[in-house]
Amino acid sequence: MALEINDSNFNELIINSGKPAIVDFTAAWCGPCRAVSPIIEELSIEYADKAVIGKVDVDSCPEITSKFGIRNIPTILFFKNGEIIDKLVGAASKQVFTTKLTAIL
Fold first, then answer.
1. Mind listing the pLDDT tens digit for each residue in 6-47?
2. Is the pTM of this model over 0.90?
3. Which of 5, 14, 22, 30 is flagged as catalytic?
4. Alpha helix (H) ranges present in 30-104?
5. Of 14, 33, 61, 73, which residue is the catalytic one?
6. Under 8 Å CB-to-CB from 15, ≥6 apart: which residues?
């Protein structure tokens, strides 16, 4: 299951994790976000030992949302060694996510 990431645990779970990470910036009211959500959940199971995969609710986490300049959702950030190395804005297929994730492993 994808981790619930918020303003207080972001650094611990993503920046300092030591693993590549995918962070899905999302909201419950967002249609495209609901389309991406099952993909994020599947990836969190398939890559459980290799990567950290989580979600940030933009409505309840304004600090982290603002820090990364998230203006459109879903926005998915790909981290390696605590740095953003790729970004995806909008809904995409599982293959797109898998390709991007595999590239950072």
1. 999 999 999 999 999 999 999 999 999 999 999 999 999 999
2. yes
3. 30
4. 31-46, 62-67, 94-104
5. 33
6. 79, 82
> Could you tell me the domains of the chain?
3-104 (3.40.30.10)
Tokens, residue 86: 């790729």
Contacts of 24 (CB under 8 A, 6+ apart): 2, 33, 36, 37, 40, 53, 54, 55, 56, 74, 75, 76
Active site residue 61: no
Are residues 104 and 85 in contact, defined by beta-carbon separation less than 8 angstroms? yes
Q: How far is CA 7 from CA 21, 30, 86, in A?
A: 16, 20, 21
